[in-house]
Amino acid sequence: MMRVLPPLLVIGGPAGAGKTSVAEAVAKLVEAPVVSLADSGEEEQHGADLAALQSRLDVHEDAPLVVVEGVFALALPPIRWAARWTVYVDTPLDIALARHALSRPDPRAELRAYLDGGRDAHARHVAPGRQLADLVVDGCDPLPDLAARIHGFMASRP
After folding, report:
1. What is the 3-state secondary structure (H, E, C) of 81-93?
2. CA–CA gap between residue 128 and residue 88 (Å, rounded)
3. pLDDT, tens digit, for every residue of 14-73?
4. I need a labelling partner for 139 at 20 to 30 A (CA). Which of 12, 82, 129, 149 fits?
5. b vs e for 92-115, b when ≥16 Cβ sit within 10 Å of the residue's Cβ?
6. Alpha-carbon torsion angle 35, 101, 78, 63, nearest 10
7. What is the rounded CA–CA span in Å between residue 146 and residue 141?
């Protein structure tokens, strides 16, 4: 079990959904730090080094809120259970895949990984987060609208 001091907003969704951008936009509205699971040091993205994550959260123990984002943020029970609010950024897989591939030096490697098992891994580990989230937002909506919607949701459920 994770020891969490500040309240957590946890944002999950597929690679390329816009989680990082959404997290940063919400964090700016509420003046909160963002902690990304991508910074966990795990080479295998189906997990996270929970001890390292807790260390990064401990740095922000005096923050009124910390935003945690990552592909598997909602798939990992200790992270999900520690959250006060959970959000799934629901972006069509073709758009998410295109965004993710184009963010890489060699998009072909990302496309090959998707064809070689990424789609199945998404269906098994990431997509179920949609049903587990408190709020589902459309990753194709304008970023300011998404941030405002999440902020309003958090304010309505303190």
Report:
1. HHCCEEEEEECCH
2. 10
3. 999 999 999 999 999 999 999 998 865 544 445 577 888 888 888 898 899 999 999 989
4. 82
5. ebeebbebbbeeeeeeeebbebbe
6. 10
7. 7
Which token pair is 109? 């490697």
pLDDT tens digits along 7-21: 999 999 999 999 999
Cα–Cα distance list, 41 to 48, 98, 149 (Å): 8, 25, 31
Q: How far apart are the first and last CA of the chain?
A: 23
**Distance between CA atoms of residues 61 and 85, nearest Å:** 17
pTM over 0.85: yes
Distance, CA of 112 to CA of 110 (rounded, Å): 5
**Sequence letter at residue 11:** I
